[in-house]
Amino acid sequence: MRARLAKLSICGCGFPLLDESVQLGTVYEVEPGIHEHMGLICGGCGTVLRDLPAIYVHERGNSMAGFLPAEVFDIDEGAQ
């Protein structure tokens, strides 16, 4: 399933979650059925973000596959 990157930050300080070269609207292949909860430490302000719903994201370019917070994506339910 495809998902479009809809948010660059999940922290109130606005520090970007991904590399600065990644732009809004970037499309990823995701598996919403493969999910877990994760924790992150913001690289900007150091806030600990706990129990974030996350989905599995396939590798893209130089990025490895893994889990990212679901809230940064708009999932296209109609796309396969």
Explain what you see.
With 80 residues, the chain is mostly beta strands. The protein has one domain (2-76). Helix content is 0%, strand content 46%. The chain is built from no helices and five strands. The protein has strands at 2-5, 27-41, 48-57, 66-69, 73-76. The protein has a five-stranded antiparallel β-sheet, with no helix packed on it. It is globular, with a radius of gyration of 12 Å. The mean pLDDT is 92.
Concise structural overview:
With 80 residues, this protein is mostly beta strands.
The run of helices and strands is EEEEE
Give the averaged pLDDT, no decimals. Answer: 92
**Helix percent band:** under 10%
Q: Please tell me what the overall shape is.
A: globular
Radius of gyration: 12 Å
What's the tally of helices? 0
Largest sheet: 5 strands, antiparallel
Number of domains: 1
Uncertain residue ranges: none
N/C terminus separation: 4 Å
Features:
80 residues; 5-stranded antiparallel β-sheet; globular
Question: What are the SSEs and their pairings?
Answer:
Layout lengths: L1 E4 L21 E15 L6 E10 L8 E4 L3 E4 L4
Antiparallel strand pairs: 1-2, 1-5, 2-3, 3-4
